[in-house]
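User: Some background: our group keeps a shared notebook of sequences we're curious about, and every so often someone picks one and asks for a predicted structure to add to the entry. Today it's my turn. The entry only has the sequence so far, pasted here. Could you supply the structure so I can complete it?
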Amino acid sequence: MARPDKAAAVAELAEQFRSSNAAVLTEYRGLTVAQLKTLRRSLGENAQYAVVKNTLTKIAANEAGISTLDDLFNGPTAVAFVTGDPVESAKGLRDFAKENPNLVIKGGVLDGKALSADEIKKLADLESREVLLAKLAGAMKGKQSQAAALFQALPSKLVRTVDALRAKQAEQGGAE
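Assistant: Of course. Here's the predicted structure to add to the notebook entry:
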């Protein structure tokens, strides 16, 4: 029978997996406590970085319906549970790993889909959600401006053509 403290830890981890948009598994071997503190700050407000026990975390992930991470639970493991923008947290992990090669990104899960370490690095290369939405809004506004200019050009071209015809008729009418 499982001890109550372990059962509670598994239940808490399973809830974190369920409530997170993404979870990224890392190996933190060789990092100091100060470096881990810096890493936690670099992940942003919408992520929680926790050092975990592999066996309990594997059980919790399976309880949460995530079985694709089973192979990644070896060696010292920490999990970044992301509840907000996963791009921001992936960038924080990638940038920290560049400065501290002891941090190894093992893989993760995003909205139930397994991600390799390379896919997480590609995710980090994306722009944030806010930037992408701003670009989309700018593109839409630009297209609306082009459409408005087009619709305005047709009547003004018609008016110029009619004026040119009147001028031509007046010129021809004056010659007769």
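Suggested note for the entry: The two ends are 113 Å apart (CA to CA). Residues 155 and 161 are 10 Å apart (CA to CA).
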